[in-house]
Amino acid sequence: MKITVRPAAESDLSSLLALYSELNPDDEPLPQGSADVIWAAVSGQEGRTVLVADAGGVVVGTADCIVLPNLTRGGRAILFVENVVVASSFQRRGVGRQLMEAAVELGDSANCYKVQLLAADDEYVHTFYQSCGFKALAQGFRRYIEQDRPACTVV
Asked: For 53, which DSSP code?
């Protein structure tokens, strides 16, 4: 199986939404109009690249990457990776590894000093990221914001 990792295009939006529903199955589907507005903001954001793993024209994985400019480390940026997901029918075939390698290459080409991500509290996921060269060096913290509000409007 040949996998090509490339930046996502607008035509990939429905595939991305399907993958995100695997990542967060309890989420309500995003209305298409909202998805279109949000995609326009995401795809137009400087330093942001949504990578997709393409298997013969089918999007089977994704990783959302953003370069964050930084005033420390000699001004070298940080690449943050979020929403990494591989379709369940394509897991354990090297797709995730190729996505993470592409993310690291993206960070390298942007002169980032590190690639950072948070991972679910899942031993398999941790083992996967460690096998890709990532190290669990810090304690991650998060605070969720009220969930009862409607989705944000991009201005």
From this structure: E
